[in-house]
Amino acid sequence: MKITDVICHVLLVPEVHAEDTDSAQDDAVVEIHTDEGLVGIGETDTNPWAVRALIESPSTHTMGMGLKEILVGADPLDTEALWDRMYTGTMHYGRRGLGVSAIGALDMALWDLKGKALGEPCWKLLGGARQEAVRPYASLQPRGRSLEQYCDSLSEWVVKAKDFGFAAAKLEATLTGPYAHSGLDEPEEATVDVVAACREAAGPDFVLMVDVQYAWSNARQALRTLKRLEPLDLFFVETPLQIDDLDGYAFLHDHLGIRIAAGEWQTTRFEFLDLMDRGKVDVAQPDVGRVGGLTEAKRICDCAADRGRLIVPHCWKTGIGISASVHMAATAPNCPYVEYLPAELCQSALRKELVSEELRMKRGVIPLPEKPGLGIELSRDALERFAWREGR
């Protein structure tokens, strides 16, 4: 079997709100076609136009190759070897960031293709299941142009998530800092008030996590507020500092009684080694598409297990990425939760409609997929409707 074509779709919701910190409004979806008619599907969470450019760019030298040119003609079953070829061949412009995110979408599609070719779900090919089912947490992003609206919205989402069958949820409590939602700029104590209101709404037995999205510029400033969150029994606090402040993350680890989680922006195991060894983060959060695909995500799970750290993957796209996260989590005994954005609890039309058959939560868990590959199907109608066109 040989790869015959690589297609990158740039997708966009009908109405984009550029002021929202919400990457579920666009998507880069790749398809890898073969001479035997099988097609693998993947996605990544970064600028989709840039991903398409890297995939379609022609090669100019051995360190600046186009990703499509690397793959066409190759055997798609050589997944790990193809990852190394893509990583090495794009070293001049890739290595980290965007280049690895593009590789991540393609690697995800290669594993989907491999599973379809061999008639096995990806988790079996990745080493087999280490847990019987995968436990999701509801990822909740509220709406609101005022603190009161925001707090009410988030509290309502928590109750909805609990009623939906979730046992855990993550609060996007981003009220200040560079990615504050909807133009909000509230005092630091507002974060504590919002989380406390959600804890009251959820009750004492519901697992809560909090994402503050890089709200603070230094660790000592962050510690003052985070200390006040300790009595609220949080599973973790996500990304309190800019991601390159590894010494600041280590300081919070040493002085705070709440787990610190980070890693949604990291690419490759090499950046995660820095995050875990120097930054001392307790919970590593690889995004399968961004980090370099299932090949690299599995390596990171193993690195985290060696260090006694937890894995809770980031996932804020569609059912494609959710499926990849579930397959990865099934093989990792140190992965207690996956981020899950159910169509019923989100506002993104892409998230709701792109995947026609996707993994579903049943009685609070996601059963291990049994279909070959990622086990999902694209809606061709949605792919056409959300396709970005020049002048749109």
Describe this structure as you would to a colleague.
The chain is of the alpha/beta class and 392 residues long. The protein folds into two domains: 3-120, Enolase-like, N-terminal domain (Enolase-like, domain 1), CATH 3.30.390.10; 133-378, Alpha-Beta Barrel (TIM Barrel). Helices cover 39% and strands 16% of the residues. It contains 15 helices and 15 strands. The strands form four sheets. An eight-stranded parallel sheet has the order 11-10-9-8-7-6-5-12. α3 (79-89) packs antiparallel against α4 (98-118), α4 (98-118) packs across α12 (293-306) and α7 (189-202) packs parallel to α8 (219-229). The longest helix has 21 residues, at 98-118. The two termini are 38 Å apart.
A few lines on this structure:
The protein has 392 residues and is of the alpha/beta class. Helices cover 39% and strands 16% of the residues.
Task: Give the termini distance in whole angstroms.
Answer: 38 Å
Radius of gyration: 20 Å
Oligomer: single chain
Number of strands: 15
- The whole-number mean of residue pLDDT values reads 95
Task: Give the CATH topology of the largest domain.
Answer: TIM Barrel
User: Shape from CA axes?
Assistant: globular
Q: How many strands, what sense, and barrel or not for the largest sheet?
A: 8 strands, parallel
Q: How many distinct domains?
A: 2
CATH class of the largest domain: Alpha Beta
Task: Annotate the secondary structure layout.
Blueprint: E1 3-12, E2 26-34, E3 39-44, H1 48-56, H2 67-71, H3 79-89, H4 98-118, H5 122-125, E4 133-134, E5 136-140, H6 147-164, E6 168-172, H7 189-202, E7 207-211, H8 219-229, E8 234-238, H9 246-255, E9 260-262, H10 268-277, E10 283-284, H11 288-291, H12 293-306, E11 310-311, H13 319-330, E12 338-340, H14 349-353, E13 355-357, E14 366-367, E15 377-378, H15 380-385
Parallel strand pairs: 5-6, 5-12, 6-7, 7-8, 8-9, 9-10, 10-11
Antiparallel strand pairs: 1-2, 2-3, 4-14, 13-15
